[in-house]
Amino acid sequence: MKTETQPATGGQTSGKQPSGRTRTSGGPAFALAIILPPRFTPERVRNDRRYRTLDKYRFIVGFLALPLLFYAVFVISPFLQAIYYSFTDWAGGASANFVGGDNYVKMWNDEKFWDSLQSSLLLLVVVPLITLVLGIFFAYMITAGGRHRRGQAISGVAGSSIYKIVYFFPQVLSIALIAVVWQQVYSSRSGLLNGLLGSVGLEGLEQRWLGGDYKLALFSTMAVIAWSFVGFYVVLFSAAMGAIPKDVYEAALLDGAGRAATFFRVTLPLIWDTVRTGWVYMGIQALDAFAVVLIMVPPHALKVTPVYLYERFREGQFGYATAIGVVLLVLSMIFTLIVMRIGRRDQIEY
Amino acid sequence: MTRSSTEKREAMSAEPMPTDAVTDQQTASATSGSEPAAGRRAAGRKDGGTGERGALNVFSHAFLIAWVVMAAGPLIWVAMTAFRPTADFLNDPMGLPTSIHWQNFANAWTEAKIGRYAFNSLVILAGSLTGTMLLGSMAAYVIARFTFPGNRFIFLLFAGGMMFPVILALIPLFTIMDNMSLLDTRPGLIIAYIAYSLPFTTFFLTSFFRTLPSGVQEAAMIDGASHTRTFFQVMLPMAKPGLVSIGIFNFLGQWNQYLLPLLLNNEDENNYVLPQGLAALTVSQGYAGDWGALFAGLTIAMVPVLVVYAVFQRQVQAGLTAGALK
């Protein structure tokens, strides 16, 4: 166990642990000390220099073994297997024949796959924009929208913590619960949305929000995902904005900057790193959109790629489904790279 | 005692004023080179400013309140509808409850089995959260505080696991679980929760353990404590703030988990966890036409989480945003 775990990972770090220089009598007592707890270890062995190293490594191995085992068996190995299986005709059984790029060719010619990918890509592009803009807007309102106080260039609104508490509600709820709630809100027969439109005399705008038109279903899905994440970004960005020193704002005010200029020239550049991280995270969430679409949207109206993958899996096309998963992985990596590239600018220290 | 502290506070809050004014003037003369700039600003603050700023203040409150309505509105509507008989609701989805109608909650608890699903979730969470925190902190401590060959590799291995979409791993995971006879069992689900929570937990706690002072650890070792004892009795208590943050993160993440149980715990409806049960509810209650029970079920699932969140809101917000700020 011990000897297996260590060298397998090695090679990268400085191995400058003190190795026993005094190679005195080792023998069976020392070998036994590997499994004995310190209090049962003979004094002679415990005073040996090498015993400290042994004790340290025994501890390291003991503490790392179980977490690493779980992680390797249930996380790393499935990921690696998935990449391998995407090149096979695996149907869940014991046999999986290597078929090269057949699954990918099939995907290329699969019109339904492309339809689902179109929805997923639209979500990937649009949802982060809506969510981040709303998040930054409300965060700025909370941080800088307050009544002006003496001696402060910038002040938060009264009751800012109440706003943040309520905005954050959707984040603590299960995405499954959110999908069910919104399914009821969108319900064409007895939903909140059509009910509201009806009660203010706009019956003409009542819609079958989810079950009818593709575009409308896509738009409704975007709204739900954005709705559930705006609060998260308000909290995140207002924390980032709160970390900007007040004298930066004082200086901007003295230079005659208005609210808009202060925001675009001071606040936004200073929180840009957080915005970029949030953008990547939101994009990956939007690309997933699995639970919301699976639970909330009727299958005929709209499919996103993860739901399409799940359906192929339920049909037993394991090889094909993993190939779709690999495409999703590549897409999220490309997205991350693009955002990190677009958003790159000089680090500002303050 | 109280008076002196208030006086002190007043003194402290008054203090920034003069220093402010000095720095203001200095900056003003440095940037524009003229005294009147500071004067203009001071005047603007007194009269014209308050009016304009006051209007903006109302403006910002209007936007902020609008989103309060957006964020809480659907949830309040669900909670209110839960108290209305289904027939009333179908006539007028917008109506207010006329009397408190508890029948829906009884139906949700017994017929729609919300109680059972919540119990399942609790059992799973008790195992998975304990396991995640224990294994995560053990791995993080060793990675953060010991030098050994492969240390950085293991750290990157955990960190890298955060970037992969879980859905890619799910299909092989399904067969691995099946081969180990862990599919559709509680231990299987608990192990999966732990394994998929480990990357972020370990990553987060590693950077947390690195910030702790090393002197205490050395002192404990010199006093004769073993490595294990140093970890459990000295380092873990010191890491409490970090453990609370990541604990809340994992608590909510695992309580709300939908993808893993959908795949690994899909056989027997009686073993569903709460999110699965809620998703199944739309189908079953839709057939039964018992929308009241659906809304009551959603309310039962929603309210405890929101109440706990409202009590610990500061820690929860810190815990959930911790990942993005790192």
Question: Would you mind describing this structure in some detail?
Answer:
The complex is a heterodimer of chains A (350) and B (326). Chain A is an all-alpha fold and 350 residues long. Chain A has two domains: 22-85, no CATH class; 107-342, MetI-like fold. Chain A is built from 17 helices and no strands. The two termini of chain A are 49 Å apart. Mean pLDDT of chain A is 79; it is low at 1-24. By secondary structure, chain B is mainly alpha-helical. Chain B folds into two domains: 6-61; 107-325, MetI-like (MetI-like fold). Chain B has helices spanning 2-14, 16-31, 36-46, 48-81, 86-91, 103-110, 114-145, 151-160, 166-179, 186-211, 214-222, 227-238, 240-255, 259-264, 274-288, 291-311, 313-325. In chain B, α4 packs across α16 (291-311), α8 crosses α10 (186-211) and α15 (274-288) packs antiparallel against α16 (291-311). Chain B is globular, with a radius of gyration of 28 Å. Mean pLDDT of chain B is 76; it is low at 1-52.
Descriptive tags:
heterodimer, A: 350 residues, mainly alpha, MetI-like fold, disordered N terminus, B: 326 residues, 2 domains, 17 helices
